[in-house]
Predict the 3D structure of the following.
Amino acid sequence: MSDTEDPGFHPRTRAVHHGTRRSQYGEMAEALFMTQGFAYDSAEQAEARFIKSGPDEFIYARYGNPTSRMFEDRIADLEGTEDAFATASGMAAVNGALMAMVGPGDHIVSSRALFGSCLYVLDVLQKFGVQVSFVDGTDLDQWRAAVRPGTKAVFFETVSNPTLDIVDIEAVARIAHDAGALVVVDNVFTTPVYSRAVEQGADIVVYSATKHIDGAGRCLGGVICGTRHFVREVAEPYMKHTGGAISPFNAWLLLNGLTTMDLRVRAQSDSAAAIAAALQGDSRLTRVIYPGLADHPQHALAQRQMGSGGTMIAVDTGSKDAAFAAMNRMRIFKISNNLGDAKSIATHPATTTHSRLSDEAKAELGITPGLLRLSIGLEHHDDLIADLRQALAG
């Protein structure tokens, strides 16, 4: 461990330095190893490496790469886990973490409020004979009723997409652990900046690194964080044999994203708080949903669990026509289905990210025709407030 990898340093410092591997040239920037394979000094060395690879011994980029390993070490350090495996996308991380641990007859309990693709993965698991029970993630009584002896895992988004419900990690973890189940959380909206998920009881944390970790809309990536046993003995064999590993180039971009993530996310969250407060009470909106507002149903939990309201806001314009009219008038906000970008983004979940859900399922989750999901970027909040107001005026 170098002097700058001391665990006593602030996470912002560790996000710049931790896990750096330098070549014989002593480069300052993290090296990009664009290679799919690695050469061996002898046939005996190749044989030995396939039997058991050391921490800096690599076989094939699908199995590991020095650049990818730097990203894995750094994000695991920030998240507080023993290890991490970098994946091709956030959905590869969700699929890999769940698929690698279960088989026919196993039981998972999941929050109902999930990103549409996460629901699809659970549908696939059910086709393979995995039993999945869905609950309202904010209702602890439903978790208690659904989790049973032999339940393999519980799964939930710590902040739900797109309606920003907060799940109590500590309480759900107690219920799960009492039954011997692992706690798998999708932590995208919380971000590593505000995450204390492991401390609060999560066993496995997955991220779409495409979002705040990259922060500039450049590439896809994901990561599975957990114990060394789970990452290397359970998740890695599945990921490396099914092809879900990250590209070294994308890992290099994400490494660079980590160096500014703390600054970006805190600035975006400050802006989100200011924007939510400015929109609250606007007669053209039927709802303003932001965990940092005192009227949010889980406001106290959000402050205890995250210490922030985060970078995302949801607003309800009352109808699809009103939502589309507002989006089409926006000058700064871009219409897209991504989030966590330096550029502010407006999304209509009912017709995009959650369009595969039935109308009944959307209504149950609070995804109304007028709901807009706003990802707050790095523009000045005064400009964003003005943009939203003029868009709503139309």
